[in-house]
Amino acid sequence: MSVSRACLGLLLLAAGGVRAASAPTGASARCDAGLLPDPVPSRSRGRTLHVSVSGRGLGTEADPMSLREALKRASPGDKVVLGSGIYHLGASSAPVRLGPPGSGPEDLTVFEAAPCARVILTSDDELPPAIVVSDYVRLERLWIGGKRLPCHRPKGLGDPGDCSRNAIVLGAVPRGVGRELVNNTIFGYFGGIVQGSSEKSLYQGNRFVRVGGGSWGHPIYIS
Question: For the segment 188-215, what is each residue's pLDDT rounded down to a tens digit?
Fold first, then answer.
């Protein structure tokens, strides 16, 4: 289902006062404000696929494709560059896997915002999307989330109720390898980033906004 303009306003407000999904303007504007200035460089050796919200093209900078098409066509080690806009990933209850896996630590599959672009990944129902990050995949300069997710925790602390829903998942059984999150803004989640058994992970410069769901929670959970 499409999200109305009013709902989008609420979504952007939940993102910490973002007013538009576009690059800043003016000679004094700094599109890198608040970001870690010198993160570990991205490493990918494949093609570059360009994506836009309304893209229906071949994936070039002049003729971008949709994100859905890029997820189908991307090969290990490709870089997917997203233009400004709000990308709806389907229902929040349906996990979206970002991949395919890269081929190794020096050949990652990369999803990153175009220079100075404001890229928001959310769900059709305005809640934070359930995202699963594949091995050797890097996410960079993306806004990921939605309206703050309410938490209804039962009295027994051993039962998480619905408080464990909607997280960015890194690692699981079997063990995950090589996930990287750099200079992203994560908003509206209860659990934020959840990492199971994993190695060679990299977190740098990520920001967490309105995370916790009104109960005890965690921006990052590593088991």
Answer: 887 777 777 678 888 888 888 877 665 5
Q: Beta strands of the chain (E only): which ranges?
A: 48-51, 79-82, 85-88, 96-98, 109-113, 119-122, 131-133, 137-140, 143-145, 168-170, 176-177, 180-182, 185-187, 193-195, 198-199, 202-204, 207-209, 220-222
DSSP track, 95-135: -EEE-PPPSBTTB-EEEEEPTT--EEEE-TTSSPP-EEEPT
What is the DSSP secondary structure assignment for residue 72, as one 8-state letter?
A: H
Quote the pLDDT of residue 168.
73
Global pTM reads 0.80
Q: Tokens 């590593």 map to which residue? A: 222
For residue 201, give the amino acid letter: S
pLDDT of the residue at 163: 54
Contacting residues for 122 by C-beta, under 8 A, at least 6 apart: 11, 86, 87, 88, 89, 128, 129, 144, 145, 146
